[in-house]
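tool=predict chain=A
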Amino acid sequence: MRTLVAVLVLMVAAAGCASANVTATSPDPAGLGVAGTAPVGDADTGPVQGGGYPDPAGDPAHLTDVRTAGQDGFDRIVLEFAETVPGYRVTYTEPPVRAAGSGAVVPIEGQAYLQITTTPASTVDLSGAGPRTTYTGPDRLQPPRGEVVTEVVQTGDFESRLAWTAGVTERLPYAVQVFGGPPRLVVDVLHDSGGGQDGNGQNGDGHLRPIGEASTDDVAADGTAAPVTLTDVRLGAHDGFDRIVFETAGGGRAGWEIGYTDQPRAQGSGAPIEVPGAATLSITLTDVALPGDDAPPGTPPWDGPQRQRIEGAQVLTELVEGTLYEGRYAFYAGLTGMQPFAVGRLDDPQRVVVDVLTGQPAPDRPVALTQRCEGPATAVSYPRSWSTNPGDAVAPCTRFAPQPIDPPEGTDARVAPIAVSVEPTPFFRLASPDPATEQDRAVTVVDGRQAVRIERVATGDGLYPQGTRTTSYLVDLGAGVDDGPGTLVANTVGIGGTDHGRDVAVLDRMVRTMEITAGSPAQESVVAAYSGGGGAFTVTATMRDGQVCLRIPPDGAENCVAPPTATGVTTVPLALVGDRRVTAGVAGERVFRMEFAQADGDTLAVLPAPVPESATGGFAVPLAAAETGGLRWSGADGSELGSR
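tool=predict ok
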């Protein structure tokens, strides 16, 4: 039997390509040949994207096969395409996982969810006389001999975006690689966090470390006489550094010349190149062949796009392609500042790696919200390492803590840092300002209901000692007292030696997963709601033809805008009544808070609410553009992302 397996392996290797029909007895059931017996790429838990995602050029790539299997030390997922591998982004995502287009929740077994999004891509070819289905396999697969990937599920094929999501037993490091002949996107999920490869710059805990010693000095390395073909350019956002990877093919090795410049220009013509950011890192690869010249057979060269960004990057603003001229391929990395960088080579396949340090300690990655429970008023997700109360003393799924919870009978004692309850008091009473304690206020929407987020510091006259910090979401459920539920309150209180900063971050993320079952259900996808001095109104948002369309129901006209970048903001005017105006818009997924300066000097803070079927947040304020003195927006950590 061992002899037979060895012969099969040699036959696959000699064929030079993968077969979708490799049997389960093969050591490579995912169909990559003997080259696939070790994890590909650089394993980590941070997002990875390439191929020009999210806006690559070209026609849609058509999926032909999806396969998955457990291997020695990792589980493998392969997406195979007919023409080429499209732009891609691989990242862990928070539950619930929703289907693109319909927005329906897709049940997936697992405690963490690794989403693979490709664009432009589809399972249906519309280029001929009639539609032709290119992928006819199942939309839900379980890996043979899989240890950490529980199942792989199709979660989107909508408007040239194709998504598959893998359920994983926990948030484990993964590696991503593109292969040709046939075109394949390969994702390997390691069986444990310590299973990385030292040759790929792996730490003992499975997370990447920078490729080498970092500095701001210019560096150079010689290539070999045999030119190479650039086959892929991809970006990664990791703990403590942002990564740029240039993958090459051929018998030689690329050289490089890398250093900071204040005059990015095109080779040959000398024309200036616009590079966003406070500093520009010039990266020139040497000994690179022109497309079509000296490339290995069946190896397509990299074909753009000219500009790439990656969500989650801390210092990399944008990577800009320059020109390929006389064997020298220039790129320019726009950065937030002149940060130390490291450069090195990795093999199998050949890669030139540039790591730009963030200058900050490695951030704590948020714990996945992979558990979900239903209480009397809400269904909500919470961290996988946390606990919720069983419901014998107080209503179930209303207390959340990083340790087991055992509330005493017949008491409202604060035994958990996060609590959810429904108060019979009307919303306008609970949400009324309290100048003595209130430190910050921002309006938002939670599951289609108007809401407000308030930060307070106790004076010592109430339930909590002086100086106790509280962050609360108050959500309008309608009516109150004898006529209805009243107000949903979700808050965290900084008492008992808790980590209040951590708890606030967890609360903010939990609220975005809430589905409210108490009170009147939302009839439309509301992203803003106001009742007060600015007038009573709501703003709804829908996705149409890749744009976010906003309107004030029931009769307001739509105004549609393109989604901004992950850190950007777009505003549009909406009519309210007569000549009254509202400023509305959408914000990128990294924008947590916006502050509108009013003409009278006051500031109005807003938290964008999720727009269904998109990665953006919608917002609106009862101000015309002429009444707005300025706009500033920031991330969840308070860092400023932009202003105007």
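Confidence is low (pLDDT under 50) at residues 1-30, 32-36, 195-206, 361-365. The first helix runs from residue 2 to 15.
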